[in-house]
Design brief:
The structure is a single chain. With 66 residues, the protein is mostly beta strands. The chain has a single domain, classed as SH3 type barrels (Roll). It has no helices and three strands. The protein has a three-stranded antiparallel β-sheet, with no helix packed on it. A hairpin with a 6-residue loop joins strand 2 and strand 3. Bound molecules: zinc ion (ZN). Zinc ion binds next to loops.
């Protein structure tokens, strides 16, 4: 499970819990330990004011057994 962080509407500050659309960004280079970071991005829509904004849904690191 990716770790979740709060995504707040930049317009009114309401927390939007679930993105209506997500996609993944894969880092082109591994970090020092050889892990690849995959960032899940999401599009959020504020239920209060209707503002749409992008936010990070979570990050996953691949390549090393923990
Ligand atoms: Zn809002």
């Amino acid at each position: 499970m990716p770790r979740r962080k709060k995504n707040l509407c930049p317009n009114c500050g309401t927390e939007v819990k679930e993105p209506y659309k997500t996609w993944q960004l894969i880092a082109p280079f591994p970090d020092k330990k050889g892990r690849i970071t995959i960032t899940s991005m999401g599009m959020y829509e504020c239920p209060k004011c209707g503002k749409k904004f992008r936010g990070v849904v979570g990050k996953i690191k691949l390549g090393v057994e923990e």
